[in-house]
């Protein structure tokens, strides 16, 4: 069942559409990613969902409510962790949670929430003294303290070190497992690939694609890159006939083939049949990076793509 419905939303600044007819819906209980290049319109879209901006056209519904007309009711069921949220530097973690929970008629008990988020040891620490990761955890706690049905997290892990980022991913999964729907705006492909059930790719204010991470990856022309140096030259006729292969090249004796899983198996069979050994055989799967570059405005050179190498 959809908890968020965005239908034909359009937002224009100084005559320039920054969101241009975007539609999607978010199902209750999923982690829904919103991915796109800088300035694509992601924050504008989520702020329309939160009722912080008013669309020029189209409709938004959160649990059937209009986030602008029914702002007070939507605020009770939607928790928002805003990009770069700041608090008074002197307020302590405990005071901030106490204060925010007082805004809601049925708040979560903030003490176990603080414990779940690893904040219980710093309840008397002032906001100004928290590290970036601790501030992020506090901002998640504040987004959850009202017991929301949906939480919107915008650029949650920007600026965090790899360990803090992974801890935060675990937190997001825990939040979803507790029954809260999560909308996650992110620049990090690995984050989106690991966490999201579905992803809306936004490009220049429009919806470029909406699919599962593996569905987006499958849209890339070739999902697997194979490379190796054969112990003896391979006949061109054999390479050109490989099933599933979209291209191949021979550069100074090193063979590179773009293809599919079927191509990998065919290469292995071919090498066995010709009794040729392959040195430095590498098989790299396409990642969400490849899909993102294919789907958005500025594709980068193929050799900059984020292929994850796997030993064959
Ligand atoms: N209040 C505003 N007035 C004028 N232009 C705005 C305003 N808010 C956003 N924009 C412009 O709208 C476009 C989309 O901005 P938005 O913040 O939604 O993008 P984004 O995808 O979230 O970007 P980023 O990933 O960099 O955060 C940008 O070109 C931005 O400069």
TrEMBL record:
Membrane topology term: Peripheral membrane protein
CDD domains named in the record: ABC_DR_subfamily_A
Main location: membrane
Domain ABC transporter: 4-229
Pfam families, sorted: ABC_tran
InterPro entries reported for this sequence: AAA+_ATPase (IPR003593), ABC_transporter-like_ATP-bd (IPR003439), ABC_transporter-like_CS (IPR017871), ABC_transporter_ATP-binding (IPR050763), P-loop_NTPase (IPR027417)
Entry's Gene Ontology molecular function annotations: ATP binding
Superkingdom: Bacteria
Subcellular location: Cell membrane
UniProt entry keywords in alphabetical sequence: Antibiotic resistance, ATP-binding, Nucleotide-binding, Transport
PANTHER family: ABC TRANSPORTER ATP-BINDING PROTEIN
Protein name: ABC transporter ATP-binding protein
